[in-house]
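Whiteboard transcription, Tuesday session. T.W. wrote the structure tokens on the left side:
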């Protein structure tokens, strides 16, 4: 399921946020730039993806490293580690009921979007658009009326029945409030909620972000695979 998680999400839990052309899918641009083609895509699937790109602008693929078909210009390729938690225990990511009830963590709403986008623009945890909050499950911690830290859920898809995988994403902290463990508290809160709904937890981290990688490892996340995020534009 995690090999082609974007396509799986857009076919299932995020179908209401998808734009489709044949079997090619992408998130509505204001939600996220990510698109996907099926496993072992045909030439027609890539042509359909090009139709989506021409219609809505450039797009990005989460994909296994490999050659692209002719007719595409690729830019800003980065390696991203996909990590998951193999064991919820000990001093790391317990994901207990107590984590889910952190009194300082509150759900973020559409009225918080300007502050969320400002924080994301300054800390760059990944793409965050005007409708990204519609992916659901974003939480934050306020300090003196300021959004000090936030995190949320992004890619999510079932693997069978209702059980599946849900990603923790957009983890970021205002530089003025770093070193207080806010990101850890948000991750624990989200993980507890995800596990309570029967899903496994995963996340992505850019390979050069060693500080975030170290935090996730302390919490019990372990590398699962490496994917390449590539921004693509079809040649006309």
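and on the right, the sequence the group agreed on:
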């Amino acid at each position: 399921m995690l090999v082609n998680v974007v396509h799986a999400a857009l076919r299932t839990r995020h179908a209401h946020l998808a734009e489709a052309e044949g079997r090619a899918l992408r998130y509505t641009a204001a939600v996220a730039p990510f698109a996907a083609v099926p496993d072992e895509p045909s030439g027609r699937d890539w042509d359909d993806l090009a139709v989506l790109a021409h219609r809505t602008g450039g797009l990005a693929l989460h994909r296994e490293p490999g050659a692209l078909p002719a007719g595409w210009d690729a830019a800003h390729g980065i390696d991203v580690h996909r990590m998951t938690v193999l064991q919820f225990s000990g001093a790391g990511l317990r994901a207990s009921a107590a984590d889910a009830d952190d009194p300082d963590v509150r759900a973020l709403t559409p009225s918080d979007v300007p502050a969320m986008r400002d924080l994301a623009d300054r800390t760059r945890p990944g793409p965050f658009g005007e409708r990204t909050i519609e992916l659901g499950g974003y939480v934050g911690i306020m300090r003196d009326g300021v959004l000090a830290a936030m995190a949320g859920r992004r890619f999510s898809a079932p693997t069978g029945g209702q059980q599946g995988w849900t990603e923790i994403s957009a983890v970021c902290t205002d530089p003025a409030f770093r070193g207080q463990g806010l990101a850890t508290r948000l991750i624990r809160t989200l993980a507890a909620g995800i596990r309570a709904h029967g899903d496994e937890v995963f996340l992505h981290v850019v390979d050069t972000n060693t500080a975030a990688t170290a935090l996730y490892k302390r919490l019990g996340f372990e590398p699962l695979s490496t994917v390449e995020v590539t921004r693509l534009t079809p040649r006309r």
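Someone added at the bottom: The chain is about 25% helix and 35% strand.
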